[in-house]
Hints:
The protein is α/β, with parallel strands linked by helices. Helix content is about 40%, strand content about 25%.
Amino acid sequence: MTPRQNLIAALEGGTPERTPFSIYSWFFTHPQLSFDDWRPLFEQGLALCHHCSTVVLREHGVTTTVEQRIEGDRRYTVTRKETPLGTLRHVTLNSVSAPRLIEWTCEEWIKEPQDYTIRRWIVEHTEPVPVYDLFGQMEEQAGDYGVTIVGGGSGRSPAMSIMVDYAGMERFALDLASGVEELFALYEAEKRLFLETTRLVAAGPGRFVKWNENLTVSMLGPRWYRRLLLPVYQEAVPILEAGGKRVMVHYDGGLRAIADQIAQSPFHILQSLTEPPEGDMWLDECRTAWPDKSFWVNINLELYDLPPAQLREAVIAMRQRAGKRALAFEISEDVPANWAQAVPVILGTLAELG
């Protein structure tokens, strides 16, 4: 089986010929990472994970401006969105001499209750637009090496989009606890847009859909997971299933406190699932809790620093805890500095295990 076939088998809940090991293709946009340097690893069985938005969001009546200023080695990017109700402002920071894949947020979009109302106006004047042709281009690039995962809109469910993309964890948590009405009004508007976008994603190409939730339970707690996330999943997943899709959620942190609710959730795949210390559940516990779901497991970054023999033992132990069925490994949080030495050890170990 090719790397693509093995990965698809695992994501479909089957047993691949060989446990897949993949990497996000967007890591190769980093100036210090060359796809050509990694090519021998793809020949050894490494799989590639492409991401493709098949639906984009088009804002109407919003004027967006972007400015940059440089202070020493710091590049600040200031983005403003002007609406009839007011202006939202967002500031990010990265390095001039060593640009990173991730820009650090210095100033969130939402800072006070009125900002939720401005954001709601933007959402209510946003049109989801299909861009289905992009999928075929990405699949052609993936070839026998990988799989293209589709998404649409913000790529997150409504509550997680508000938290991660607009308010930030602290503001969101405080406003939830305080019962800020403007936050809940925005949530309802985001939910309507999310479901409209979901219907378009369901009608488009691709088998696997990803919601990039970036969830760890301490961000919400069980009560708010039950109120804000679970109902959306229960409404949206059947829409995607009717379009022949399987749905994955990017859950990369602690999950034990909501393990029972995850079992009730209708999505099919936990992606970037990570064992302790980043997460708080071992793979055998996950398999017991969610026997019907596929696991796309991020290998803890610290394991790459182990001597080759110990790294091999760690990978074998992870495979034993999870079992071979419905399991794939991946590099999804960051690329290890010693990838050239460590990744071949993992690929060799998985080849031996079969």
